[in-house]
Specification:
Blueprint: E1 4-7, H1 23-36, E2 40-44, H2 49-59, E3 66-72, H3 84-91, E4 96-102, H4 105-110, H5 116-132, E5 136-142, H6 144-150, H7 152-165, E6 169-174, H8 181-198, E7 205-210, H9 217-226, E8 231-234, H10 248-258, H11 272-283, E9 300-301, H12 304-311, E10 329-330, H13 338-347, H14 357-372, H15 380-391, E11 398-406, E12 414-421, E13 424-431, H16 437-449, E14 458-465, E15 478-485, E16 490-497, H17 500-521
Helix pairs in contact: 1-2, 1-11, 5-7, 6-7, 8-9, 9-10, 13-14, 14-15, 15-17, 16-17
């Protein structure tokens, strides 16, 4: 059975308190989602003229996916012709509109100030109006599971009203996100039986939309699929209001590899990890390292027994990480042993064994920097640099020996660095017409090195944390994480120092060194 993938990152996901998306951000994300091949992209709830402009621009760039506008049923005391929001949805000129309406009597009474029958009329009128204007309507039954538990017969009448008025898809929404999997399973099964009995021959698609307030959105979505839902709504990374929505990056591989459902032929799950990283970068959301399937830690091993088993050919992964575009890895932490170090060193092409003194020296260095507060656990670039330090060629490219940064409010930042490039003393002075001290340091170090290859390197993300490693004085240290990218990959390095600028310069220098060393080895 084939599942329909409906992405709502750019509408429901926008309600995440950590996000703020303008039209350009949404257009950039639309391109990525369209390239990946999701069936539908819910772009926005159009309430302003700028939303209509967004739909116009997005329509010209999609090739695979279908754009969807989102809207509520008409206001209780309005006609459909006079309802501003319904008519704005029509003005998007999208063929597909998702219409949501009330199911739970508590909300009908307290929020709509209406009777149950008035709500049914609003649902039917709104669906008919959109269908009359040539639109295909997906009906989102808001708070369906709560409404069903409160009054089963009325909740089903809400679905009937939408179907009889012409909707093609019914989506059951766990809007509060409080249901557990057994409830989702039982109620979805009951709805499927109702549809088969009362609407046979209409080919109604059954959908599911779960929030994650009880931590069950992924499991709930999969349970609904098991009971007959084929239209699955979710977001990339599980972003969304409050705790978020079902994470499509976990739902899709679970459905395909564990439940053996299929997706449209354009979707290649080997590109899923890359999609997740690129979407996070576009919307300005920091990646969750522990995100199932696509996170950096998803297939990374730390425990000694696990690492030893992996190196001997045994698997501690629940599936091959390559199936979702990820990779298996080894963590380097205070818990690491020589097996972990050996595994990392071998992964970079060096043949050796545990008896090699450099293995123990590298392990001692890992313990040392860990005590300082560094966290290089799953940072592949840091692993590479450590390996080069003990097994390869690390320091002959460049060294930043000293630096000076001037930065004042409402003035340009200036950075001067002194150092050696290929063993020769050099310095660089860069006047920044616009930008802060980190930007100045980044450009100044690049000028010091003066290698054309670095023009292909761009700074993607900058983050700071205070490592919790002991005494109050030690907590004044900061870790600066900088993620870089070029046309082929992304990599992250870390700097550690009480001075945030010194930590930044260390991270920048390591990021450049990683790229140059890798370039020379290729």
């Amino acid at each position: 059975m084939r599942l329909i993938v409906y992405d709502t990152t750019l509408r429901d996901g926008c309600q995440d308190s950590r996000l703020s998306m303008n039209n350009q951000i949404k257009l950039n994300a639309v391109k990525l989602l369209d390239e990946f091949g999701v069936d539908y992209i819910e772009l926005a709830w159009p309430v302003k003229e700028k939303d209509l402009e967004l739909f116009k621009k997005a329509k010209n760039q999609v090739k695979n996916s279908k754009l969807v506008a989102f809207c509520s049923t008409r206001k209780i005391y309005h006609s459909v012709e006079d309802d501003i929001l319904l008519n704005l949805a029509l003005r998007t000129e999208t063929k597909y509109i998702t219409l949501f309406g009330k199911t739970w009597k508590e909300h009908i009474k307290n929020q709509l100030k209406a009777t149950p029958d008035q709500n049914l009329e609003a649902i039917a009128d709104s669906v008919r109006y959109l269908r009359k204007n040539g639109r295909i309507v997906f009906y989102d039954a808001e708070h369906f599971f709560d409404g069903y538990k409160d009054d089963k017969e009325y909740a089903l009448r809400c679905l009937d009203a939408a179907i009889d008025a012409g909707t093609s898809t019914i989506v059951l929404c766990d809007t509060n996100g409080g249901c557990l999997p057994d409830e989702i399973s039982r109620i979805t099964k009951s709805v499927k039986q109702h549809l088969d009995k009362n609407h046979a021959g209409k080919n109604i698609e059954l959908g599911i939309h779960c929030h994650n307030d009880a931590g069950c959105a992924i499991a709930n979505t999969l349970m609904a699929v098991k009971e007959g839902a084929t239209h699955i709504q979710g977001t990339i990374g599980g972003v969304g209001e409050r705790i978020g929505n079902a994470d499509l990056c976990a739902v899709l591989p679970n459905a395909v590899f564990k439940q053996e459902y299929s997706l449209n032929e354009r979707i290649n799950l080997e590109k899923l990890t890359n999609l997740n990283r690129r979407i996070h970068a576009v919307i300005g959301m920091e990646l969750e390292k522990n995100q199932p399937y696509v996170g950096e830690s998803a297939f990374a091993h730390n425990g000694g027994i696990h690492v030893d088993a992996v190196l001997k050919g045994a698997s501690y992964n629940h599936l091959k990480p390559e199936l979702v575009g990820n990779r298996s890895g080894i963590c380097l932490t205070k818990n690491s042993g020589r097996s972990a170090v050996l595994g990392v060193v071998k992964s970079f092409g060096y043949e050796t064994d545990k008896k090699d003194l450099r293995i123990q020296e590298m392990l001692d260095e890992i313990y040392r920097i860990n005590d300082l507060g560094y966290n290089i656990s799953i940072l592949r670039a840091e692993h590479y640099l450590l390996t080069q330090k003990f097994f390869g060629d690390y320091d002959d490219i460049f060294i930043v020996e000293n630096w000076m940064i001037t930065s004042m409010k409402n003035t340009d930042s200036i950075c001067k660095v002194w150092g050696k490039v290929n063993g020769v003393e050099n310095d660089a002075l860069v006047d920044i017409k616009a930008g802060g001290p980190v930007d100045a340091a980044y450009k100044s170090i690049k000028a010091l090195i003066n290698d054309p290859a670095l023009e292909r390197v761009h700074l993607l993300h900058y983050g700071v944390e205070i490592p919790k490693i002991g005494s109050h004085e030690e907590e004044s240290l900061v870790n600066v994480y900088i993620t870089f990218k070029n046309e082929k990959e992304e990599w992250t390095t870390v700097g550690n120092d009480p001075n945030i600028l010194e930590a930044s310069i260390e991270a920048i220098s390591k990021g450049f060194r990683y790229y140059l060393l890798k370039s020379r080895s290729n």
